[in-house]
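Project channel, design review

CF: Before we commit to the Phyllosticta capitalensis constructs, I'd like one complete example in the thread so the newer folks can see what an input/output pair looks like. Taking Pyridine nucleotide-disulfide oxidoreductase-domain-containing protein.
RD: sounds good, go ahead.
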Amino acid sequence: MSRQRTSGSSRFRGSAKKKLKLINFTGWGGYTAARRLDPKKYQVVVVSPRSYFVFTPLLASTSVGTLEFRTALEPVRSKQTDIKFFQGWADSVDFKRKKIAIEEAVDDPSQGMALTADRHENKTGEQRSLEKAEESKRGDLFDLSYDKLVMSVGCYSQTFNTPGVKENAYFLKDVGDARRIRNRILECFETAALPTTSDQMRKNLLNFAVVGGGPTGIEFSAELHDIIKEDLSNLYPELMPFYKITVYDVASKVLSMFDENLAKYAMNVFKRDGIDIKTSHHVEELRTGVPSNQTGIKDPRGCYTLKVRQEGEIGVGMVVWSTGLMMNPFVKKALSRFSDLPARRVDIQGSDKGVESWLVKKHPRSGAIITNNQLRMILEPETDEETKTRAVLKDVYAIGDCAMVEGTMYPATAQVAYQKGKWLASQLNKGDEALEKGKGFRWNNLGVMAYLGNWRAIMQSGAGGNISGRAAWFIWRGAYLTKAVSIRNKMLIPLYWFVNWAFGRDISRF
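CF: and here is what came back for Pyridine nucleotide-disulfide oxidoreductase-domain-containing protein:
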């Protein structure tokens, strides 16, 4: 399908006295930087396929109705900010002309959902039925000029090319994913409650598998256990003997980023709650239908079959997949080889004599963009010979999960992305001279937390202190409440916590 291409640079003629700043995508790094930049110095332009920022720590709660979806969202367009916004995908970048090509994404059916491949190839879950519509709705391209460019494109969900996972698994990276999970949980219980459903099919439908033993997988398992024990057990008492929650992980233990004692505490809590944790288990396939050894079941497509190397085929009602991140295809396709560099604002370190083309420096294993400690993008000559020559683009920055600081191993977490966005905005507000003379970005480890269900949590501070149980749960809730961006959500979050505690979760399907 041919797409028209127009220029969007003329739209900002009224802001000629302000430096133009383009923040690409609305993750933790980009959204934080966009909100904190001084509007008197910069005209901030946000380009993203979604018109909101997601407070990801609350997604597990929204997926089971502990909180409503709006409490985890912050709109980009707001009366409180002077941010210009275009809903689109970054398509390509021209560093020499300082332009970025944007594909319109207003009608993109994949927005609000986790992606596992290039957006035009991704056909997971509900999107398969929209394949033809997605092709016909590919947006036109338009160009935007920039003075300074911040790349914060994030990462996609990693599936390791496991057969059937992209098509049949449920992910938890965006609000659309949380909505799908919430509807599927209730669908499984409603179907299992029908008198025409056999006991074997009930076991299949109410067998919930979570693949990935990191904080996301553990917290979702805990939230799922809460809604079943606190709400669904009263509404479907006859189905309680059939439900099961299992966490699978290929590693030898879950919550590897936590202290060993905290990880053991979490496993013991799950064991007491009846949640199985199966480590050193390898998922080989996920397909629709019942296991091959189950015959004569009505509507066998109503569930899924999870094939695990250590256990064989298992009938499940839903598989929530949370096994880590893969690099955004945009980084590989659009940020790779460049022949020309801008005439100004580029620092050539070494000799560029004979250099015909440049490559964006990337991490050899993860593919992440390598930046210096000022978060500026680094280019290297495209040559097989070992050379110390490189170029630093002074007006192009990379933050968030798609980038890493040279010589560091900071984790790809919201905490690191948030601190990068905050630090970069602070330095840019002071001016380029302050950025040049500054000490560079350093991550301040504030610790990690995870919810375990039934008002219990674990917390490991950056200094190494450990807290578990009810005290950690209070800190967990208090931390997320104080980190909520808007006053509106700071009010709504505790309100929904109280309403759902007092009256139970809303289990309506819509």
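RD: helpful, thanks. Confidence is low (pLDDT under 50) at residues 123-136.
CF: The first helix runs from residue 28 to 36.
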